[in-house]
Amino acid sequence: MSTTFIHRNLPRLLLQARESVMAHTRPSLREHGLSDQQWRVLRVLGEHGTVETGRVAREAYILGPSLTGVLARMERDGLIRRERDPADQRRTVVEATPKGLKLVEKLSRTVEAHYEWMEKSLGKQKLAELYELLDQVIDLEQP
Predict the structure, then answer these.
(1) Least packed by Cβ within 10 Å: which of 1, 14, 31, 59?
(2) In this predicted structure, what is the pLDDT of residue 13?
(3) Could you tell me if residue 81 is inside a domain?
(4) pLDDT tens per residue, range 83-109
(5) Which domain holds residue 97?
(6) Rounded CA gap, 95 and 83, in Å?
(7) Residue 36's domain is classified under what CATH number?
(8) pLDDT classification of 143: cutoffs 50, 70, 90
(9) What is the pTM of this model?
(10) What is the Cα gyration radius of the chain?
């Protein structure tokens, strides 16, 4: 027995699109010894500076228990620094070290070059529409 679906498998398509985009970035990450998760953490820190770990987890889409291991490895490798939040000792904040920030700067050039290629290939308007549609889908599914 098979079920007939009317709509295409959107979650699978989004994952496939993600993998397609990451296929261009992943070799550069691996060249610098970074996992996808570590890059997402560094990108959050590169964009926002010192950030509370809960926010890092949310913005990098990494579950808390996994984030703990990711941050431990990044701290060991000298990419980030963790400390208690001076305003609230119950919380921990994370910041990129100079080594981590240098890596963000270097990799951001690769990432931005790929986005420029996508913009040229798809057209500026289509890429803007894609961003807008994705934002709308995200907003639509928020509780």
Answers:
(1) 1
(2) 95
(3) yes
(4) 998 888 889 999 999 999 999 999 999
(5) 12-140
(6) 9
(7) 1.10.10.10
(8) confident
(9) 0.88
(10) 18
**Hey, how many other C-beta atoms are within 10 angstroms of the C-beta on 104?**
18
Number of domains in the chain: 1
Residue 3 falls inside a structural domain = no
Report the pLDDT averaged over residues 31-44.
Answer: 96
Amino acid of residue 132: E
Burial class (CB in 10 A: 0-12, 13-18, 19+), 56: buried
Residues forming beta bridges with residue 94, ordered by sequence position: 51, 82
Residue 39: name the closest of 113, 97, 103, 94 by CA: 103
Q: Is 30 helix (H, G, I), strand (E, B) or coil?
A: helix
Q: How far apart are CA 73 and CA 67, in angstroms?
A: 10
Helix (H, G, I), strand (E, B) or coil at 89: strand
Query: Over pLDDT 90: what percentage of the chain?
Result: 88
Strand (E) or helix (H) holding 78: none
- Would you call 101 helix, strand, or coil by DSSP? helix
Please report whether residue 102 resides in a domain.
yes
Residue 126, in any domain of the structure: yes
User: What is the mean pLDDT of the segment spanning 123-129?
Assistant: 97
Residues 6+ apart with CB under 8 A from 92: 52, 53, 82, 83, 84, 85
